[in-house]
Amino acid sequence: MLPAIAVLLLCQLAGESLVRATGMPVPGPVIGIMILIAGVAIRQRVSATHDLADAAGPVAPLADGLLRNLSLLFVPAGCGIAERLAEVGPHVPLLLLILVISTVLALVATVTTFIAVRRLTGGD
Description:
Structural class: mainly alpha
Oligomer: single chain
Distance between the termini: 44 Å
Number of strands: 0
């Protein structure tokens, strides 16, 4: 478990360092996850395995555990909103509208992508 955490933290550190060195307008953790994905893809190609869990090595069980408990990571954000409810309160209608619109757009993008992939792969 410790090597997996070290890999994740090193990828995040590399991403943060790259962003600060180049001034890219992208969050460091996003670059870090891209580095991790590139590493897994390279490892998968080098080892000629078709199983992503094998290619991910020690990171796979840690990632599964984090994904299973992902909802816990939203608790601090929810507490922060509840703590500043007086400041957020006047903006609730606009926030709800934005939430609904972004959800609809995400669903439309998902359906459009699904239809495009189905056509490209020859599905019915």
